[in-house]
Amino acid sequence: MKQFIDYIPLIVFFIVWSLDERMVTVAGMEYELGGVFSAAEFLLVTSILTYGSLFLAQRRLDKFQWITLVAVVLFCIPTILFRNTDFLKWKAPIVNWIFAAVFIGSRFIGSKPAIEHMMGHAVNAPRELWIRLNTVWVFYFIALGIINLAVAFLLSEALWIQFKVFGNLIITMLFVIGQMPMLAKYIETDEAAEQDTESKESI
Predict the structure, then answer these.
(1) Are the beta carbons of 16 and 34 closer than 8 angstroms?
(2) What does the pLDDT look like over 53-62, one tens digit per residue?
(3) What sections of 19-90 are H helices per DSSP?
(4) Is 33 helix (H, G, I), strand (E, B) or coil?
């Protein structure tokens, strides 16, 4: 559910970008709907509304949501003001590299690496595995940032936006699935422990 909510602003961004550019009248004022700059405006507003609502409902945002929200504000505003997509093209690379820095920092600050904070509630893996996975995620975020930068500045606007909205999601899903064999036996151990507990309770 959380991942879906985080994805709402990007879906809105893609829908608005894909519209044919045209003038519409809103509350007696003309507005140019469609295209990348209109999409950036919707991305900015939708992100503020989405994360603002989450903050009001939960009284908190996690650090990754704060990073994403601040990045949207910082990169969308100059994109809109200067009508230059170069600002927005830097958002995904820099956000990914900040995520990498957070994962690196978590090894030295706090009791758990970042990946354990994210997945530890569902998987009871040993600390050595969490540290190894945390390092893998650091390299993943660095590589994904480089890929996003290359796609943004070397490919067409259409390919960049399609990759921004769908490519990152698909790559991340495949990356997570690729880690499942490393975690599977610990997930099975958790399930077995729950079954043992249920068996003992039924005796």
Answers:
(1) yes
(2) 999 999 999 9
(3) 35-58, 63-82, 86-89
(4) strand
